[in-house]
Design a protein that fits this description.
Blueprint lengths: L1 H21 L2 E9 L1 E3 L2 E8 L2 E7 L7 E2 L1 H6 L3 E3 L6 E3 L5 E3 L2 E9 L2 E10 L8 E5 L8 E5 L4 E8 L17 E4 L11 E6 L2 E7 L7 E3 H6 L10 E6 L7 E13 L2 E11 L8 E3 L1 H5 L1 E6 L4 E6 L50 E2 L9 H4 L6 H8 L6
Parallel strand pairs: 4-11, 5-10, 16-21, 17-20
Antiparallel strand pairs: 1-13, 2-3, 3-4, 3-9, 5-11, 6-9, 7-8, 9-10, 12-13, 12-22, 14-23, 15-16, 15-19, 17-21, 18-19, 19-20, 20-24, 22-23
């Protein structure tokens, strides 16, 4: 009788768990076409009734426009929190300036009196600015740039252990817990490893090319003046001078269930308070990614091809507000001799391989992007911005 009771309890518990799982509804509430402008993922929105092209920037805590766009669309100066500053990837800071759009439409939503940060280098050419986490952070958002789309989801009844990467059947899916997440995401930071050393990476889709900070490279034993380190152009943030970039050899880059062996990584003297590396549009193109505000996690699967675009030079302002989520402080590289490393990898060596075992439409009331309330201001103040 005792064994029968235990069996019944087990069956009931399993049934309840199954019922709870069955109740999970991951509802798509919006789908937005994405076009790659070079290495910049862009969407089309409407500012004061006119079409505007904006970069999708998961590394920006708030959306922004450049002064030329603000003038073109008739945007008006808006009050910004006094004394608040934004910080670029090179360490340069600026006091926040803001402008307001009388009307703004995005992802099927319409807003009034919507504020944007004002930044000189943001966008450029046909790009007016960017869409930041104030328009994405409240939701679960899928970034499927390889197929030209981003999707908004609303989970209902989905537990923390539910796999929200609905497309991942038969694929190796990585799940990363976010570091120090806020109630509404203002930054997307998780852990990875470079040559066995744990680093923090910022998922920053608005930046074109992924970059590791010089300080983190130094902790892995890389020195910029090593014979096998080569120059790789100059990268620019939203403020400050350009930063010289280098390509350096690493034995391993590992994140989630993936590991790239014998690759090169782009390195620059980034000044990033909360992270050591920017995972930019090149990483997003080689993966299908879901950033879940409901679970405070990042999911991704590998699409194929090179994970990092090492054959391209950085272009001005592609990092823009995307590098927003701040990153590890710059500094001199590590001291001492570096252990022997594999020969520089071939162009195809940037391809990743598996590691270890196989492994409602947003409403204006919940997603209003126009408020500079004291709560919003305090949240933003803790999230350094921009490249």
């Amino acid at each position: 009788m005792k064994k029968l009771s235990v069996a019944l309890v087990t069956l009931v518990a399993a049934g309840l768990a199954g019922a709870a799982q069955a109740e999970c509804k991951f509802q798509k509430i919006a789908e937005v076409p994405v076009t790659m402008d070079g290495m910049r993922p862009t969407i089309t929105a409407q500012i004061n009734g006119q079409d505007a092209h904006l970069t999708v920037s998961t590394g920006s805590f708030f959306s922004g426009v450049n002064p030329e766009a603000a003038a073109k669309y008739g945007m008006k100066r808006a009050a910004a929190p006094v004394g608040m500053e934004v910080r670029g990837i090179g360490g340069a800071t600026r006091s926040i300036q803001a402008v307001s759009a009388e009307s703004f439409s995005f992802a099927g939503m319409g807003f009034h009196h919507t504020e944007f940060l004002l930044a000189d280098r943001l966008g450029g050419g046909p790009i007016a600015g960017d869409v930041g986490e104030n328009l994405m952070g409240p939701f679960d958002v899928e970034y499927d740039f390889a197929h030209g789309v981003m999707r908004y989801f609303k989970p209902e009844g989905c537990g923390y252990d539910t796999n929200l990467a609905y497309w991942s059947q038969g694929l190796a899916v990585s799940r990363l817990s976010l570091i120090e997440p806020t109630t509404i995401l203002t930054k997307v930071i998780a852990n990875a490893k470079v040559d066995g050393h744990t680093i923090r990476v910022s998922f920053s889709s608005g930046g074109g090319l992924s970059i590791l900070s010089r300080a983190a490279a130094g902790r892995a034993g890389i020195k910029i003046n090593d014979a096998d380190v080569t120059r790789a152009g100059v990268t620019y943030g939203m403020y400050g001078k350009g930063l010289e970039a280098f390509l350096a050899p690493f034995a391993s880059f590992a994140i989630g269930e993936e590991e790239i062996k014998n690759t090169r990584l782009r390195v620059a003297d980034l000044d990033l308070p909360n992270a050591d590396m920017v995972l930019a549009a090149d990483f997003f193109l080689s993966h299908r990614i879901l950033i879940s505000n409901s679970q405070k996690r990042v999911y991704f699967t590998y699409n194929g091809g090179p994970v990092f675009r090492l054959d391209q030079a950085p272009t001005p302002a592609t990092t823009a507000v995307a590098a927003a989520a701040s990153e590890a402080p710059g500094g001199s590289p590590g001291v001492g001799a570096r252990p022997p490393r594999p020969a520089p990898s071939s162009p195809g060596a940037g391809r990743r391989r598996r590691r270890g075992a196989s492994s409602s439409r947003p409403s204006p009331t919940t997603a209003r992007p126009s408020s500079w309330s004291p709560t919003t201001a305090r949240t933003i103040a803790r999230a350094p911005c921009c490249a």
